[in-house]
UniProtKB/TrEMBL annotation, chain A:
One of its GO terms (biological process) is transmembrane transport. Belongs to the binding-protein-dependent transport system permease family. This is ABC transporter permease. SUPFAM superfamilies: MetI-like (SSF161098). It is a multi-pass membrane protein. It comes from Marinibacterium profundimaris. Keywords: Cell membrane, Membrane, Transmembrane, Transmembrane helix, Transport. The keyword Transmembrane helix applies.
TrEMBL record, chain B:
This is ABC transporter ATP-binding protein. Its main location: membrane. GO terms for molecular function: ATP binding; ATP hydrolysis activity. It is found in: Cell inner membrane.
Length: 342, 590
């Protein structure tokens, strides 16, 4: 019950935070002088193409870029009606991309959930690798297992991702016949989800997951090892041994549970850093994630497109932190019962 | 009858270094208690842990034989494999540890942690284990076993947690219980009750106990046999009664001489006259507001100190005695101006006799700087109160630097003079704190506090982290310095025996309230308040003929609402202090 109330409370704060973020995002995008259209109009005027100017002027009015900034913001979010009534983010209208001359929704549509899929896969990979490895390294600290784990981890941290990507593609293709580039076979693009398409996506995910996840997994392994070593020195571990627990059961039930908290707290941070950190990898691997699109949009001041993507990343982060906060409350009774009368 | 456990020629060491336990042999008879006594570094803990092989990873048992003659016949424990050893741990031999606060996992319910023993060793189902565990909880004195079963450790007090630990150790009905300083971290009244509980359980089940302790008083109350250890060797061993009444080994004699004792007093002392109080507290209250975890819940109020009126006479020592949570440390902070009392309270400090008083709770910036020169503090934990990255010399001269007193060489000269006064050598000034033992560090803390020539020292449990023999030395040093520098002490302690040694006047606190106040001798001659009586009765005396009086402890150690009618008080209203004789005040209904 109390967990449920806490979740509701966190939802509320999340909505408020999102609102603040939207103001910031909008302000930052509008910091550089001019906007996409006025830049274009200036350019067209200079080259004497007046037909294009009329179209651009029309778009300026259509998307309220001629309005004062605060009004633009309200219209963008959907608090105020624009020329065509209420149609902002809240109403599900994500705006128009001037660069690609298509609605934002069309451009990001597929890559939106592919981004989520790739990053989720990477997070799962990180946890799947870091958990057993970190635990093992701590339990057998100062042994060859520990040192090997550290070596592998540092290699993982130090190797540039795109290089790793190229190497993996080469050998993956040579020995395992793994596909190169993309997130699915080109024939499935734009097709509805079928069993075959899903299979194709899964096979294509192997290399990107590995590439994006390695450094995160390395860092997390080392952190878990350090946390576990701290916990292993605590008296409750002795109590557990004195009970007659086997070492493995003892490790998993007691110190791991305690050392696990920082891990859970990390979920929120992992998501955004991977979206922005995997841009280069996405370009190299030809992944249709949102990263490369964001890069283009920011470079060309394509404000609705970049604004939407930034909002999307913020939403991912907030959802991530919310999930980790709620999980923490469920996992750790000390947080759950804080402030409860004894 | 063969002994239950035999340890022969045990030798344990770390890495390539010299052995820390050498040639230790003893026997634990059935149904009786053996006490392993020694100070820190004596090897007593390592010895007891080697029985179940719960040792630091770098420790190795180099030689020796440990034979256990329990329910499964004669087993040589030192030859068991790790897997076989697991079956002994928690079943035939179980263990309880020193710190109940940290010996239970914070993330698992008590019931789960205790039941686990039965799941492992009996293959019990959740239901069966629960039934047995609830019965065990009842035996260790939990009023509401069901609630404890569902609780997390942080929801219980220290004494309750140690009871839960004992239940965990007892639930498999072991032949031998190893208790490693089981009551050291507990309040003295709780200690008395936990010791009583272990004794009762032992009588009921006929198990043997190995009790590891540094406290001869605990030994006298609990053990039939004693092994005195020092630097890894057995100094003296045998039956408790002869050793405790007439120790033959010089080291044991030394331990006895150092053990603090509540003195037997023949007559009350005269009132401490109040002519020139250096520190006066009037109607001091302190309420903390605990922010609720969520916005819509009201904040909670914690009343740490309530209605305290105290005066410290110049050149005297006023001791504030109480258990954890009694508000004594908060009071010390208020006296030093580190916390402000609630509005209406007043703390007055007179730096010189007859001088203008400073209102400590309303100081200007200049007054505060001046006040800090005059009033200094000695902290409890000498291990964390000195910066490990600062040379002793820098730590000592820092106060002078902050206040801009003297030149560099004058500061260094002063540091050299003071370090000799506290019994260390001036060539130690270049060292870092880690090169000093606990007692030496506490000497350094005292030297640092004296650097500014204060007139008032607030000592917050200055000896409770130290071994008894070191405690004795530090107390002597504090006395000597008080007389030499004409200091006044506000002495905070939980230990009446320590207080008996140094204090002129004692105020006993409970739940933020002073319940009894008297000159030290008067208090021990004629304690009136049930809580004071409980504190005195709970103090374990190193004398087999003066066992702890558990009935008196039980009468006064409970909550103020459970005290006898005349003394009882609740949350909001409490009786006034009544003067019994000059200088002796007791809080009771008249």
């Amino acid at each position: 019950m109390s967990t449920l109330r806490y979740a509701l409370y966190r939802m509320m704060t999340m909505v408020l935070t999102l609102l603040v973020v939207s103001v910031l995002v909008f302000a930052i995008i509008n910091l550089p002088p001019g906007d996409y259209l006025s830049n274009q109009i200036n350019e067209l005027r200079a080259t004497g193409q007046s037909a294009g100017v009329a179209k651009a002027e029309f778009l300026r009015r259509e998307y309220s870029l001629d309005q004062p900034l605060w009004k633009q913001y309200m219209i963008w979010v959907g608090f105020l009606p624009g020329p065509n009534g209420f149609s902002g983010l809240l109403q599900g209208d994500w705006g128009w991309s001037f660069e690609f001359e298509r609605p934002v929704a069309d451009i990001v549509g597929d890559s939106l959930w592919l981004t989520v899929v790739v990053n989720l896969a990477a997070v799962l990979f990180i946890y799947a690798v870091a958990l057993p490895l970190g635990m093992l390294a701590a339990a057998k600290s100062r042994s060859w297992i520990d040192y090997t784990a550290a070596l592998v981890a540092y290699l993982g941290l130090a190797t540039p991702n795109f290089l790793l990507a190229l190497i993996l593609f080469y050998y993956g293709h040579k020995y395992f016949n793994l596909p190169i580039g993309g997130l699915m076979d080109p024939i499935f693009e734009g097709q509805p989800l079928t069993w075959d398409k899903l299979q194709s996506i899964l096979v294509h995910l192997i290399v990107p997951t590995f590439v994006i996840g390695t450094s995160g997994a390395s860092a997390m392994t080392q952190r878990l090892r350090a946390n576990m070593l701290d916990e292993l020195g605590k008296p409750y571990v002795e109590t557990a041994i004195a009970k007659g627990l086997s070492e493995r059961r003892m490790l998993v039930k007691y110190p791991l549970r305690v050392a696990f908290n920082p891990f859970v707290a990390d979920i929120g941070n992992l998501l955004p850093s991977m979206v922005s950190g995997s841009v280069l990898v996405s370009v190299v691997l030809g992944l249709q994630t949102i990263g490369p699109t964001l890069l283009t949009a920011l470079k060309t001041q394509d404000q609705f497109l970049s604004g939407f993507i930034l909002m999307f990343v913020a939403l991912l982060t907030l959802i991530g932190t919310m999930i980790s906060d709620i999980l923490l409350v469920m996992l750790d009774p000390r947080i759950r019962y804080e402030g409860r009368e004894s | 009858m063969t002994p239950l456990l035999t340890v022969e020629n045990l030798e344990i060491g770390f890495g390539r270094e010299q052995s820390v336990v050498r040639d230790v042999s003893f026997e634990v008879p059935r149904g009786e208690t053996l006490a392993l006594v020694g100070e820190s570094g004596s090897g007593k803990t390592i010895t007891c842990r080697s029985v179940l092989r719960i040792l630091p990873r770098s420790a190795q048992v180099r030689s020796g034989r440990i034979t256990f003659n329990g329910r499964d016949g004669v087993v040589e424990l030192s030859k068991l494999t790790e897997r076989q050893m697991r079956h002994v741990r928690g079943d035939a031999i179980s263990m309880i540890f020193q710190e109940p606060m940290r010996s239970l996992s914070p993330l698992h319910r008590i019931g789960n942690q205790v039941s686990e023993v039965l799941w492992i060793h009996r293959g019990a189902s959740e239901r069966e284990a629960r039934r047995d565990v609830l019965r065990e909880f009842e035996r260790v004195g939990f009023a509401d076993p069901e609630r404890v079963y569902r609780s997390y450790p942080f929801e219980l007090s220290g004494g309750m947690r140690q009871r839960a630990m004992i239940a965990m150790a007892m639930v498999a009905k072991p032949d031998l219980l190893i208790a490693d300083e089981p009551t050291t971290a507990l309040d003295v009244t709780t200690q008395a009750q936990v010791l009583g509980l272990i004794k009762t359980l032992q009588k009921d089940t006929g198990m043997s106990v190995i009790l590891v302790t540094h406290d001869l008083g605990v030994v006298a109350n609990m053990a039939e046999h004693v092994v005195v250890m020092h630097r890894g060797r057995v100094m003296e061993k045998g039956d408790a009664r002869p050793i405790l009444s007439d120790p033959t080994h010089p080291y044991t004699q030394q331990l006895f001489a150092a053990a603090p004792e509540i003195p037997t007093v023949d007559e009350p002392a005269p009132e401490v006259e109040s002519n020139d109080p250096i520190l006066t507290m009037r109607d001091v209250n302190k309420t903390y507001r605990l922010r609720a975890s969520v916005a819509w819940k009201p904040d909670m109020l914690a009343r740490a100190v309530r209605g305290v009126d105290l005066a410290l006479e110049r050149g005297k020592t006023l001791a504030i005695v109480g258990e954890s949570g009694s508000g004594k440390t908060t009071l010390a902070k208020i006296a030093l101006g580190a916390e402000k009392p609630d509005p209406g309270g007043e703390v007055l400090f007179r730096p010189s006799a007859g001088g203008e008083p400073v209102v400590v709770n309303q100081m200007t910036r200049e007054e505060r700087t001046e006040f800090q020169k005059n009033a200094q503090m000695v902290f409890q934990d000498p291990y964390s109160s000195l910066s490990p990255r600062m040379r002793v010399q820098d730590a000592l001269t820092e106060p002078l630097e902050i206040h801009g007193i003297g030149s560099g060489s004058e500061r260094r000269d002063k540091a050299a003079a003071l370090i000799e006064q506290v019994g260390l050598k001036s060539d130690m000034l270049k060292r870092f704190p880690h090169a000093f033992s606990g007692g030496q560090r506490q000497r350094l803390s005292i030297a640092r506090a004296l650097m500014l020539d204060p007139v008032l020292l607030v000592c917050d449990e200055p000896t409770s982290a130290l071994d008894v023999s070191v405690q004795e030395q530090i107390l002597s040093l504090l006395e000597e310095i008080r007389d030499r520098h004409k200091l006044s002490y506000l002495f905070i302690s939980h230990d009446l025996a320590v207080v008996a040694r140094i204090a002129d006047e004692v105020a006993v606190m409970r739940a933020g309230i002073v319940v009894e106040q008297a000159p030290a001798e008067t208090l021990f001659f004629d304690p009136r308040h049930p809580y004071t009586k409980a504190l005195i009765a709970a103090q374990p005396e190193p004398d087999v003929n003066r066992p702890i009086d558990l009935a008196t402890v039980a009468r006064g150690a409970g909550a103020p609402s459970d005290w006898p009618e005349a003394f009882r008080f609740g949350e909001d209203d409490f009786p006034a202090l009544t003067t019994m004789s000059p200088g002796h005040k007791v809080r009771q209904h008249v």
